[in-house]
What does this fold into?
Amino acid sequence: MMAKNYQGIHFGTDYYPEHWPRERWETDARLMQEMGIQVVRMAEFSWHKMEPREGQYDFDWLEEAITLLAQYGIKSILGTPSAAPPAWMINKHPDILPIDRQGRRRGFGGRHHDCQSNATYRKYITGMVTAMAKRFADNPNVIGWQTDNELGNSHGDLCMCDSCRRSFQGWLEKKYGTIEALNAAWGTHFWSQEYNSFEEIFAPLITVTGENPSTMLDWKCFCSDLIVDFQQMQIDIIRKYCPNHFITHNCMAFADKVNYFDLNKELDFASHDQYPGGFYAVMPHEYNHDMAANLDITRGFKHQTFWIMEQESGITGWEIMGRATRPGQLAAWAEQSIAHGADAIVFFRWRTCTAGTEQYWHGILPHSGNPGRRYDELKQMIARMQPVMDEIEGSMPRSEVAIVFSYRQEYAIQIQPQHPDLNYLTQVKKYYKELYRRNVPVDFVQDTDDFGKYKLLIAPLQYLMTPELAQRYFDYVKGGGRLVLTMRTGVKDAHNICMSDRELPGTLGELCGIEICDYDCLRDVLVKLDTSNLQVESAQVNVISERETGVESAAGCAGSKWADIITLKGAESLADYASEYYAGSPCITQNHYGDGAAYYVGTEPEEALMEQLMDKLLADAEVKSLGASEPGVELAIREKDGSKWLFAINFNEEAATYEVPADFEIVQGEVKGTLKPYEMHLYKKFS
Ligand code: GAL
Ligand code: ZN
It folds into this structure.
């Protein structure tokens, strides 16, 4: 196999030379080189600089920057500038500006002020990307491309203009074929919503009251497809002129406007923008698992290692700011990204900008441009990590546990949360967090991926069910898998219509050995549980948790938001309700089926319950933790060709401990088992 042109590149920064005087560029390049920077990303918002007037392309400045950087050994990635159409274009074609749900046209002056179906805009993009691609195709110092920037970001609603409406109609016609099929799928007999033709269908502008959940689900899926198509148009051009360059896109983990599994399909690798500091007053431990989850889902988009295209490099802030990053914290966050599968870390941004919205989103260099604390810290980190990155490159954790992530389920729950606080992502992350706290590596998978390699598969809120998906779950369990399904599973069909042919959870009732004929939406109340059947002998629990969780004892086990009142049809109960009129009815069940088992969790487990449930699941599935650690210390692993690298990272401001892994050699770090604040230890096990 031919080596990829990005192999061996591991550290970079996002650079905006056009924001600074030409005389400064050389200093920047030198400072970057001294720091160990190997690559920059440029130009993703520089449309006006590259086409100041219609048809007058100017790439000279960019080429000059690329050439200068190359003299310092730095390669370039170019961003297509389609997230920032310039004022001349908008004035000439105001219909490029998007229409929001209220029917208002959004103005110029921010970014992402573009309708993605707009034919005129697509023509301009075709012109720009073609010109850019042709110009840099043979430039030996350009190695790849980023399409647009964080597609799907920046507008609450996707555009609902006439052009988008027509595209939606076309998308629906392709999906349903006939208007009768659409009427049936959407249940338009309700409130006289039948359509006589596809041309009658609207974009879902704000209504007087209510909306059709089926329409909304299709709209969200359409918007996602539109973004994928918008990107594809750019990919096609770049592939044509620059066959040797890679193409990627900077995603945002769990942002939901576009299905990232789809968006990444035609890309060489996924990229992610990681900002642990966010706008938080502090970066509490509460968020460590969120950061890890961001990285794990990004790895899941292609089941492949990935890049961080923007890694936090200082205080975050637009109008308000987060806290200063503690000494060592930026390095620890970057190392966390590597630990979860990043092969390259590009820091955002090189130098803090002086103008525009992001004046307080701090770069490696401060406004003054003088290297300081952050520069030194990251320089040291790069010096430490660079020597091991080549061998680690391409290695992945081999997770025994997977969580199913589905945009369609998420959309459907967003459209009708049922309980006001029921949130798909929150639910997914509750399970994730419990695994994270135990240092159990997790993969995120699509519901079409291969489940077979996982010992434990957690599929929260499988609200929309199709015969095909149900079959996949049956097959997984039959083959020996342990599957966790939850409340609100099997409620609706693929079109977001309630199913009525049997009791909940529909066809999966047989797999779970249960039936649900009654349920309770737990408004402002927790339901108590008796979990005596859930207890596992601690000897069986192969994870050690020396954490002060602050979690109450078994007596305090509770569920929230929802209570499925379960009738056993072959399953055994692991936990019964202990309050409400259904006290004594099962809430959590287990059913042996084929060579495996299906668990059903009829509520959203509060912390103490989740802890007990996970003890049981991990013990049953014989899943191993990477080891015990104090709170705020994370263990993560990457493996390749029989070699393993184990990372221990301390996110605490104080020293903290972890269990030293057996059979590993320490390759970075001094006192095995004890980490200084924000320190990382790296272990290796040879094949
Ligand atoms: C990212 C974005 C960057 C910059 C950064 C800081 O989401 O891709 O362009 O805006 O946030 O706000
Ligand atoms: Zn539009």
Q: What stands out?
A: The CA atoms of residues 234 and 261 lie 18 Å apart. DSSP finds 17 helices and 25 strands in the chain. The pocket of beta-D-galactopyranose (ligand 1) is lined by residues 149-150, 250, 273, 310, 348, 358, 361 (CB under 6 Å).
